[in-house]
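Why do we care about 3D structure at all? Because function follows from shape, and shape follows, mostly, from sequence. That is the central idea of this module. The next example makes it concrete: a single protein chain, its amino acid sequence, and then its structure expressed as tokens.
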Amino acid sequence: MKITLSNELPHYPEFKEGIRRAPDRGFRLTPVQTEIALKNALRYIPCELHKTLAPEFLEELETRGRIYGYRYRPDGDLKAKPIDEYKGKCVEGKAFQVMIDNNLCFDIALYPYELVTYGETGQVCQNWMQYRLIKMYLEELTQDQTLVVESGHPLGLFKSKPDAPRVIITNSMMIGQFDNLPDWEIAAQMGVANYGQMTAGGWMYIGPQGIVHGTFNTLLNAGRKKLGVPQDGDLRGHLFVSSGLGGMSGAQPKAADIAGAASIIAEVDYSRIETRYSQGWVHKITGDKQQAFAWAHEAMTRKEPLSIAYHGNIVDLLEFAEAENIHIELLSDQTSCHEPYTGGYCPAGISFEERTRLLKEDRTKFHELVNESLERHFRVIKKLTARGTYFFDYGNSFMKAVYDAGVKEISKNGVDDKDGFIFPSYVEDIMGPELFDYGYGPFRWVCLSGKHEDLVKTDKAAMDCIDPTRRGQDMDNWIWIRDAGKNKLVVGTQARILYQDALGRMNIALKFNEMVRNGEVGPIMLGRDHHDVSGTDSPFRETANIKDGSNVMADMAVQCFAGNAARGMSLVALHNGGGVGIGKAINGGFGMVCDGSERVDEILRSAMLWDVMGGVARRSWARNANAISTVREFNRSYAEGYHITEPYLVDEEIIKTLKIL
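And the structure:
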């Protein structure tokens, strides 16, 4: 068996008009590095084609900033097909092809021609040669093999066994000395680093639905904690303002609608507004600041949800609100601030088109404008919060970006960023204590058959597994799944997300596998994202409420990855960067194919509990009250075969009596 690309030159694909393209972020390699980059790309291709492709790849590198190998992209829209239409020697090999194509279809991918799924730079792999090889390997993969992928590069098939992972992925795992954005950019241009985020490079993205539920939970609980909304109430009559309508941030207006709020979301790229409007995820569009707030006020008076896209810069919108004394109750930001200097944040005062030009022609000037805009953004938020606005960082690394821009007063301790910032992360105030510390996080599944009726059946089965009277969180999630079909959340293939704790995830997973075994539904892919309890170490996001000093450590994410591999999850992935940027997070994820077998049942019973409780254990050890109570209950319920270390809590008065220098 030899797996290699053909020695026949593929025809150059046509680029469909109207499909977004990644910006050219500039070319900064030395002549020696450029030679290496070309050799790196050409090593995928038979030698007889090198003379033809070398100048083509050099042009891509110089004009696009990367070698994407466009010639090797298949024609048209890579829309996911039903699993039975893919070639493969095992169900997992076919399942992962469904997931990859779903990540790259026109409906979902941010920049489909550049293999970017979301988050400005989150890629499935680096180039189309890798894509083709990965697909070829997945077609040959058997249950006695494992495909290893390193930063998009398919290292090859290795003999293993049926209860081992079928795919192991790592992305951008850089040596500490070089674990920074400038060095990463060089590595990416040379073709050796891939920014996988988690669900892009881990092949598990299900469209913005994946973050809609997390945003819904965040907004609803923010209203309860800060606006006096009752436990059984919603956000009707309240206003939420934010920015960003891209792959992840596009979830904001839909989530606000489901929560009942009036929302205004600023976006500088009109094509992204058009995408959300055509989906029905945004109701109204305007470039007039006064009109946007007038519409929102009318909806609040009627106590009806309304989502408004403001075509313009969020800084201008907030400065208008401050000058006009307009009260904003809930405020956040979802620009791609983990990539502020590579296009993720558009500075106030320039157009989106000028942003794109400066990225290519004058990065120094662009860097200066970003810093100035971030400071303006911070200043106006500070004024609004002084008037009663509740602002929270929604995990896009906004506050870290402000700090890195030179605004040191955003630091909580006034010295560095290790203790966080003067505004809370959504994890510190909301998601951490209310959800993560109990183990609630984004359990998700894809009906690999592509049949809508399978999704309807799994929705019903998941709802039947939830006891809505146990906790308020369970009632929220029971209502969420009850109304999921009505809310029309599917973008791409038939998929769903549902926040559940360890026991809930295991029970639902086992139920799904039983349904597959009984022929009620086709195979199902299980997964989650990095916005979760245990998979990600990120001091500015997922672990922002870890206050014992270990927020700078990445042991949990690595152990999550290793533990899921040891227990036999179908796919395991470990990434640097996540949604907050290179060097700022490590996240481990999984994908699990339910094929109806008893083997999968056994994996689910051990792996699903491990995947969640490893994170709850970390949060308990950090002395988080709700996590401590969750661990104690788990230790009682699972005394046979499990025991999580519980912390002893010291009396605060003992510490206070000590003379600490």
